[in-house]
Specification:
Elements: H1 3-33, E1 36-37, E2 48-49, H2 52-59, H3 61-94, H4 99-111, H5 114-125, H6 134-141, H7 154-182, H8 186-194, H9 199-210, H10 212-227, H11 231-237, H12 241-244, H13 249-258, H14 265-293
Antiparallel strand pairs: 1-2
Helix pairs in contact: 1-14, 2-14, 3-7, 3-10, 3-13, 4-7, 5-11, 7-10, 10-14, 13-14
C-alpha cells in the first residue's frame, strides 16, 4: 500500500468507526435478537433460537395492518409529493418577482415542528361536539359531509395522513428541485427556443433528463422516509395507533419495545429486520431502474 492510499484509509477511519459502532453493530445485534425466542432484556436470557419470532410477527393482525397502512402511504405520497414538488419548482423557476419570498414560504412547513403541524391538521379535519372543523364547513358548501376525518372511517383517516405526509415532505423536495433546475445550462433552452420548440417538449426533452438524477434521488429517499413513517401518524391520531387502526411498521416496532403491550424485543427485532429487507429491496429496484432512465451529464 503506497503512502497516498494509506492517507486515504486514514482519513476514512473515523467515519468507518462511526458507521461500524452506530449502524453496522446495532444491525447485526438486532438480526441476532430476531432469532432468539423469548428474549428477556432484563436477564439477557432466552429459551431457544429459530424462526418463531418471524412467524409470530407475520401472523400478527396488528403487523399486517401496519404493513397495509405503510404501503398505502408509500404508494400514494411518494409519487404525488414528487410530482407536485416538480410542478411547483418549475413554476417558481419561471417567477422573476418575489422569487426568494415564494421559495421561503414553500419551505416553511419543513422547518415547522411536526406535532405543531399535526395540531393544525386536527383543527382543520377533526369533528367535535362543538365544531365540525373547517374542512367539513367547506364540504357543506357542496352538500357533502360532515365526515370525522380523525376518529371516523378508515379511508378518511388515511386521506388525512396522506395529505399531512405530502405537506410535510414536499417543501424539502421543492428546495432540492429548485436548486437542480437552477443548475441546468441555459444554452440548451436558448437553442430549443431558436428551433421553435414548445415549452412542454422543452420540459420533457431537456429539463427532465437534466434533473433526472435529483428526481430519482428524491424518489429513493422518499420511499425510505415513507417506510419509516411514525411521527406523522402520532401527530394526528395519538400514541395508540393500533386502536385507531393507523399504525405503521415503525410504530409496531416501537409498540413491541415500549408500548402498552410492549416488552418483546425479539418480536420488535424481527419486525425491524423485515422492514430493513423491504426498504433494501425497494431501494435496489429503484437503483436498477435509475440506471436506465437517469441521464448523467
Amino acid at each position: 500500500m503506497n503512502k497516498r492510499n494509506f492517507k486515504g484509509w486514514l482519513y476514512l477511519l473515523p467515519a468507518m468507526l462511526f458507521l461500524g459502532i452506530f449502524m453496522v453493530y446495532p444491525l447485526i445485534d438486532v438480526f441476532i435478537y430476531s432469532f432468539e425466542e423469548g428474549y428477556n432484556s432484563a436477564s439477557q436470557t432466552y429459551y431457544g433460537t429459530g424462526m418463531y419470532n418471524y412467524s409470530y410477527v407475520l401472523h400478527d393482525p396488528y403487523f399486517l395492518q401496519a404493513i397495509r397502512n405503510t404501503f398505502i402511504l408509500v404508494v400514494i405520497t411518494v409519487p404525488l409529493s414528487t410530482l407536485l414538488a416538480l410542478l411547483i419548482s418549475v413554476a417558481l423557476s419561471s417567477v422573476k418577482a418575489l422569487k426568494k419570498l415564494f421559495q421561503t414560504i414553500y419551505f416553511l412547513p419543513y422547518v415547522t415542528n411536526t406535532l405543531a403541524v399535526g395540531l393544525v391538521f386536527m383543527i382543520l379535519f377533526k369533528k367535535t361536539a362543538y365544531s365540525d372543523g373547517l374542512i367539513n364547513l367547506v364540504l357543506k358548501l357542496f352538500g357533502q359531509g360532515p365526515v370525522d376525518f380523525i376518529d371516523g372511517p378508515y379511508w378518511a383517516k388515511m386521506l388525512v395522513l396522506c395529505i399531512y405526509t405530502i405537506w410535510i415532505v414536499m417543501p424539502f423536495k421543492v428546495l432540492i428541485l429548485t436548486s437542480a433546475l437552477a443548475s441546468v445550462n441555459q444554452n440548451y433552452y436558448n437553442a430549443a427556443l431558436v428551433d421553435g420548440t414548445s415549452r412542454f417538449r422543452i420540459f420533457i426533452r431537456i429539463t427532465l433528463p437534466m434533473i433526472s438524477p435529483t428526481v430519482f434521488y428524491l424518489i429513493i429517499t422518499g420511499f425510505i422516509g415513507a417506510f419509516k413513517a411514525y411521527s406523522d401518524a402520532v401527530a394526528l391520531f395519538g400514541t395508540d395507533l393500533n386502536a385507531a387502526g393507523m399504525n405503521t411498521i415503525v410504530g409496531y416496532v416501537y409498540d413491541m419495545l415500549y408500548g402498552n403491550g410492549g416488552g418483546y424485543p425479539s418480536y420488535a427485532s424481527a419486525a425491524a429486520i423485515l422492514l430493513f429487507v423491504i426498504v433494501l429491496t425497494i431501494t435496489c429496484i429503484n437503483l436498477l431502474v435509475s440506471k436506465k432512465h437517469v441521464y448523467y451529464s
